[in-house]
Write a structure and sequence with these properties.
Helix content: 10-25%
Strand order of the largest sheet: 2-1-6-5-4-3
Largest sheet: 6 strands, mixed
Oligomer: single chain
CATH architecture: Roll
Shape: globular
Radius of gyration: 14 Å
CATH class: Alpha Beta
Structural class: alpha+beta
Mean pLDDT: 96
């Protein structure tokens, strides 16, 4: 595990997706548990860009952001409040598990749940 790997994981969980693209393995797999799976860097980027478009109009406040690292993984446990002009505020708890191999992000598993406001 390198410092760069930890920074990539943190940037992804903070929705700073553009900072992570150069580190995606071509065959990266992103499993959003209970929702869908994205296969390959192009599919992951497409989903990130759609998310970034929505987030551009939202105010995001992280109330919890813990980063844990291991030999080939990073875990980010976070809670964030999202506020937009068009929707009621929402609070989401997330746990993202990032796996790295040869300095590339090869797998992401994301668990998310909306919490009562």
């Amino acid at each position: 595990m390198t410092q760069v790997d930890a920074e990539v994981a943190e940037a992804f969980s903070r929705h700073e997706f553009h900072r992570t693209y150069a580190h995606l393995a071509p065959t990266v797999r992103w499993d959003v548990v209970g929702d869908r799976t994205h296969e390959g860097s192009a599919a992951v980027r497409e989903t990130c860009e759609a998310s970034a478009a929505w987030l551009a109009d939202a105010r995001t406040t992280f109330t919890k952001f813990d980063v844990l690292t291991g030999p080939d993984f990073v875990v980010v446990d976070s809670t964030a409040e999202y506020v937009t002009a068009d929707e009621p505020p929402s609070v989401v708890a997330s746990c993202d598990i990032y796996r790295f191999a040869e300095n590339q992000l090869v797998a992401i598993t994301s668990y998310t749940v909306e919490l009562p406001s």
